[in-house]
Specification:
The protein contains 5 helices and no strands. The protein has helices at about 10-15, 20-30, 45-50, 60-70, 80-100. α4 (about 60-70) runs antiparallel to α5. The longest helix has 25 residues, at about 80-100.
């Protein structure tokens, strides 16, 4: 498989020079710039991620936190964490419906 012009795939850059990797990374950033935020910190936690991406809705914050650390906190398995995120997102949808209904 060959890369289309302007579309360097990760598999195709394996073993390539650092310049090729930098070009591929630059293409991803340009294509998906909304996924990249400048971060001056050596490490960040979930709350900093939420802040950097301006996630202010409490339901979305909760669901994102669950997904980011799914199964990694020790006392709940990944299935339970993902189900809790789904439940929270369903509640978010319900709240939007409640708001639409009350606006009528």
């Amino acid at each position: 498989m060959t890369a289309e012009p302007g579309n360097l795939l990760l598999e195709e850059t394996a073993g390539a020079s650092p310049d090729v990797h930098l070009a591929a990374r630059k293409q991803r950033r340009e294509k998906h710039s909304h996924y990249f935020k400048p971060c001056p910190f050596g490490e960040i936690d979930v709350y900093r991620v939420l802040h950097l991406f301006n996630v202010t809705d409490p339901c979305l914050q909760h669901a994102i936190k669950k997904v980011l650390v799914a199964g990694g906190r020790g006392h709940k398995d990944i299935t339970k964490d993902i189900q809790e995120a789904i439940d929270t997102l369903r509640r978010w949808q319900e709240m939007r419906m409640e708001e639409r209904e009350s606006a009528k």
